[in-house]
Specification:
The complex is a heterodimer. Chain A is mainly β. Chain A is 0% helix and 50% strand. Chain B has no helices and 11 strands. Classes of the chains: A mainly beta, B mainly beta.
């Protein structure tokens, strides 16, 4: 069964550094998302992306965050200047289309900001 | 933000018996509901969904029930198997964004004892 692939599985970075989290969507999927889960808390929506632009974003997704699909395959989440509170599991998710389609999640990247 | 709430953080069930996981929501704009299962170090895996035009959806051992008037949904697993032991999340999506921007509950850890 096709999978959403995320790299790296674990990223450790110092506060203030930039990080890029990568995701390879399922090949025929058109909608891409980032969610995160801070330890002990709920899974939270960050951003949705379709047709090379952001379609929706949450309050969490501030100016420190950006997404792009630079080469038509990878879908990336960049955090420009990491903060301690950015430490979380970041999940990429994709779905084939809009309209009652369940999201397919990757296994996540654990980001630790020290 | 408690729009989707799972009041039981954990549930223990004997193998072969029924597992019932519950979920309540407050936002009347939600009209698509999903259950995801999550193993440690993996992303959420889609299990089953239901739209608000239905009150029941069944897939093998898994059945989801929706009570719109009570803003309550439940997941029934019968018979429960040890491999079902995982964290189960319910999630909901508003009618103008079907399936795409999910609001998650806090999860219920199911333990199925052999």
């Amino acid at each position: 069964e096709p999978e959403v692939t995320q790299t790296p599985s674990h990223q450790v970075t110092q506060m203030g550094q930039e990080v890029i989290l990568r995701c390879v969507p399922i090949s025929n999927h058109l909608y891409f998302y980032w969610y995160r889960q801070i330890l002990g808390q709920k899974v939270e929506f960050l951003v949705s992306f379709y047709n090379n632009e952001i379609s929706e974003k949450s309050e969490i997704f501030d100016d420190q965050f950006s997404v792009e699909r630079p080469d038509g395959s990878n879908f990336t989440l960049k955090i420009r200047s990491t903060k301690l509170e950015d430490s979380a599991m970041y999940f990429c998710a994709t779905c084939p289309g809009q309209g009652y389609s369940p999201l397919h999640f990757g296994n996540g990247t654990r980001l630790t900001v020290t | 933000d408690q729009q989707v709430k799972q009041n039981s953080p954990s549930l223990s069930v004997q193998e072969g018996r029924i597992s019932i996981l519950n979920c309540d929501y407050t936002n009347s704009m939600f009209d698509y509901f999903l259950w995801y299962k999550k193993y440690p170090a993996e992303g959420p895996t889609f299990l089953i969904s239901i739209s608000s035009i239905k009150d029941k959806n069944e897939d093998g051992r898994f059945t989801v029930f929706l009570n719109k008037s009570a803003k309550h949904l439940s997941l029934h697993i019968v018979p429960s198997q040890p491999g079902d032991s995982a964290v189960y999340f319910c999630a909901a999506s508003p009618e103008n964004n079907a399936g795409n921007m999910l609001t998650f509950g806090g999860g219920t850890r199911l333990m199925v004892k052999p």
